[in-house]
Amino acid sequence: MTTTTSVMRAEIAEQPAALRRTLQDLTPLTGALGELGRSTRQVLFIARGSSDNAAVYGSYLLQAHAGRLATLASPSIATTYGSKVDLDGVLAVAISQSGRTEEIVDTMAWAADCGARTVAVTNGQGSPLAEAADLALVTSAGDELAVPATKTYTTQLAALAVLALGLGADLDPGELNAVPDAIEELLAAPGDGVDELAERLAPVPGAVVSGRGMAFSTALEAALKLKEACYLHAMGLSYADLLHGPIAVVDQDTPAILVAANSGPTLPGTAALAERVSSAGAPVYGIGGGATLASACDLALPGPDMPEWTAPIGLIVPAQLLTERLARRLGYNPDAPRGLGKVTQTS
């Protein structure tokens, strides 16, 4: 592919505006979320693909800051096994960019039938998911034409941050409202690191992408993007899972990409992991983590300077830029990866 721009790159650049619109539209719903959540004790996230990675962020956020047990659903329990589960006291949060994935719509309906209250997070105004939920958080990303999710993903994260605030998280809403400006600053001066890292990854067949805590969601989403658009055998693993054996796969042909916020309790461990990978003779690259992570890596892409709880919304942006650049470097069209469409139906 010889073009220097793509729809994906243009949509990455649209994220600050999409986030501003989404926060403006959804922040007034924190009161309604609090009212809906008052009759519930725990949260069940229903999602697939990129939306499932967003749910990982939501799960960490609610458990760390809202005092709510949060888990990820197995939709096949509803759609394949048809099992009945007591979901009294559960808030089921179904996440789908289009709001038209039948498996997610059906699983949310199943959850309601099992006694759950329901929230939809979707970019699909008037979609079946939005219409069926007790309350819909409709993001304002606008139409997304490139198949790899970028602005629909980050606006989902913003919606989940609003959900956390509505459910009583003791966090500063001003820090969330500062996210669009921070991402805009990053996009205005991304530096040369993205091009350099794309060159280093171009010859390798695979990579391990790892993060811990809030940043784990970014590691999973970054790995998914590299698989979708670059056909790289990228494994998204948590910090702990990587240490429990799979670290043996990291070598000269399988570098590690480690993701972290610029501060927070998981940063020291992530930097220590980078040093361990490097001491084993394998390349190690960073996304975010400030000077602490950069000093332990062969090359690091700076992330926006955000507190840990909002950092995943910004940390995915360098990974999106890297994916788009690497796809073009390899001669692939990042807008239309083979075998993929915007809506995936699971039978």
Automatic annotation (TrEMBL):
Q: Domain SIS, which positions?
A: 32-173, 197-332
Sorted alphabetically, which CDD domains does this protein's record hold? SIS_GlmS_GlmD_1 (cd05008), SIS_GlmS_GlmD_2 (cd05009)
InterPro entries, A to Z: GlmS/AgaS_SIS (IPR035466), GlmS/FrlB_SIS (IPR035490), SIS_dom (IPR001347), SIS_dom_sf (IPR046348)
Q: What Pfam families does this protein's entry cite?
A: SIS
Q: Which residues form the signal peptide?
A: none
**Keywords of the record:** Repeat
Task: Please report the name of this protein according to its UniProt entry.
Answer: SIS domain-containing protein
Q: Which organism is it from?
A: Nocardiopsis suaedae
